[in-house]
Amino acid sequence: MPLFALVLPVKTIAPAWSLIGILSSAAILGHERRLVARDAFVRFLPGCALGVAAGLLLFKSIDAASLARLLGIFVILYGGWSFWRLGHPRGASRVLPPVALRAAGSFLSGAVGTLFGAMASIFFAMYLDGFGASKGVFRATLSAMLFTLSIGRTIAYAAAGELNVDSLILCGAALPFMGLGLLVGDKLHTGLSERTFQYLVAGALVMCGLPLLLKP
Predict the structure, then answer these.
(1) Rounded CA separation 2/72 (Å)
(2) Any long-range contacts for 16-20 (C-beta under 8 Å, 24+ apart)?
């Protein structure tokens, strides 16, 4: 999503990404729904709903260029945090204990996801880290969270008049790439070590955030 924000307005991308989130998470849940941690999922919903409301208020009041710069700052900071966390896991757990991870993760997933149309999965991961979820449960529960949040965001965008034809066209154009991404993701999920993948994601976030921050 940060790459799209280099060439398209965030206010067009965000609603489209919500539609894509519904479809992609539904595809994963089709064969992994039995692994969803229902208790963690239910506890996640109230904070996420509050976050969606807060994100929608900001989304309506901030222009597209400012949203792009905010997204750039956010992804750079989180990329740097991810690198530091990988090298200092004990320090990271002291800075953000499990209770704080769960509370911040549920609220920020709704707020950031609504504000930028993406990046909520970062906070889903933060929330699930606070529960110590296993790899399979982690992926299935994260998909259930994304599915629910994407539906809520799409309804909110439509109610606010932000879901337009351009967003629907972008969603349709992205569908083939989404399917390819799901296939590649399945391979990476089973064939790439979790630590290597985390380093790749952290590096990609920093690299994507820099052009957004410098975008005029």
Answers:
(1) 8
(2) 16/117, 16/166, 16/167, 16/168, 16/170, 16/171, 16/174, 17/117, 17/118, 18/117, 18/150, 18/153, 18/154, 18/157, 19/150, 19/154, 19/167, 19/168, 19/171, 20/150, 20/171, 20/174, 20/175, 20/178
Unique residue bearing structure tokens 């606010």: 160
**Spatial CB neighbours of 15, under 8 Å, sequence gap ≥ 6:** 117, 153, 154, 157, 162, 163, 164, 167
Query: Using alpha carbons only, what angle is made at residue 37 by residues 35 and 16, rounded to the nearest 5 degrees?
Result: 85
**Site of tokens 């400012």:** 66
Using the predicted structure, report yes or no on whether residue 189 has a pLDDT greater than 60. no
pTM of the model: 0.67
- Distance of alpha carbon 131 from its chain centroid, rounded? 18
DSSP at 192: S
Average pLDDT in the 197-206 region?
74
pLDDT band for position 173 (50/70/90)?
A: confident
Q: Yes or no: say if 212 and 2 are a contact pair by the CB < 8 Å rule.
A: yes
Domain ranges in the chain are 9-63+96-193
